[in-house]
Sequence to fold (600 residues):
Amino acid sequence: MPFDGLVLSSVCNELENKLAGGRIERVYQPGKVELQILIYKPGSRSRLLLSADPQNARVHLTSAPAANPAHPPLFCMVLRKHLEGGRIVSFHQPGLERLLVIKVDSRDELGFPAEKHLICEIMGRHSNIILYDPATKTVVDGIKRYSHAVSRFREILPGRPYLFPPAQDKLDPLALDEEQFRRACLEANLNTPLPQVLQRRFAGLSTISCREIIYRAGLSPDMLLDQCGDYEFRVIWDAFHRIFVGAGQGNFANSLATGKKGEPLDFAALELSHLGSGNKHGEMNALLDCFFTAKSNQERLDREKRTINSLLNKKTTRLDKKLNLYSRDYDDTAGAEKHQVYGELLTANLYRLQKGRLLVTLENYQEEDLPLVDIPLDAALTPVENAQAYFKKYNKAKRKRRALTALIKQAREELDYLEGIKAAVDYATEQNELQEIRQELAEQGYLKRPLPQKRSKKKKEKQRPRPHTFVSDDGFPLFVGKNNKQNDYLTMKMAQAEDIWLHAKDIPGAHVIIRTEGKDIPAATLLQAAGLAALFSQAGKSKSVPIDYTQRKYVRKPKGARPGMVIYERQKTIMAEPDEDLPDRLSGTRGQVPRPRAGH
Fold:
């Protein structure tokens, strides 16, 4: 995630062209270290995002409004006081430093003109957003305040003089010739790889940009400085110089590298040709908005997954302990039949026994060779009472075993259910899927249920489970329920009697439906549907998964069964290989879900 000086230069260039002369309408602070500024210019309104987050510090235009706190923080109130209604004079970046100065013409408390600077310092964990008064050369306030107790170099406190961040020992690429470039490189350690040499010696470059320069020079990124001769320095300089000549003229080849599924991976203010195909191009602000929106969504999804998994892990740990206790108690009842035999032998030999004996040896007539059995007795009890005591122990152990059998079965079913939920959480890819899982957990008593809200018919339609939709290579619609809510809706309401239903054998996972429309299903379609059932199951990382399939009419849900639980018959089993690329190959789309069948 290289928000380097070159990227900021491209952002600054675009902001200057788009927003200079615009009026600041409103300032918001949706996060502890994040601002959004609404800027009006005749014919358009723009939303400028500024973040001093240690991992995601950045400046760019965004199309995504954020939720704001009910009471604006102090820094937000300060900015509203000094900047709202002001006109943006310019956006300025000193050299290729990761520092952006937004100059604003506003008015002071008495209505006199007063210039203010909003300074964005994008420097990892040292990032900050500072309101500066150039008339007094002091800090008005900062989104992060700190004193000399934190930084010996400078303080960011109201009324203190503002000092720019300490300069790094890097050279400005825009002010170099080839000879200066070579000398700067040779000042580095000779055992340093070439991308690191560039990144450490020259301003404005991230590691990924340096790797691109070395790639364009036709050299290996692992090549060391010590291996460079006159030719290597010349080709590196040529690639380096071409990039910065364009940047100096405001020409940037902005690119967003994407993965196999189109997910944003990296960005730069130059063409990332060393990453191969899959790059998107356009304005830097738009590419950054795309990248950080996707990153934010993924981080939110991951946080939600961790929260749900934490709850599920607590519950499954508790169930594991219960099962161990139940199993141990069940094992303690293993001698129950022996007590019954003792009672029956004592009853059959009452005429031979007298009160007061501690042990009696009797023939076990229940076995062929009549082995002798030593039976301990209570001397205070009569022979009849001793026999009754053994029968009582037997009946107590039998009742205990029966109760433990039911408890063990119930605990194992609950454990299987929760393991199925965990599998659904793992392969959830959208926030609404996790919301469906949360709703189910609330309905099952694992989470506190939210207060009921009246929902309109349109809202109910929107909140209906939406299984994923794919199309096999033979043209058959395939539907996949990725959690229990979707599974129940798909199997019990969407699917038709003649459709083919698939599920991983004895493993928690997705229900898959092949919409047959009265046609015979080709083997290739069956294998693709089985592949989806294998992939979206708890065994999705295995090499091969057994998949049961049958017609939907042979699948039913027992009364009172948990969500997603069904029983089925007349099934056949095939082996399928989970393939992570299969969903993309089947050109599926979300949301194209047929109406439920009549009668449900």
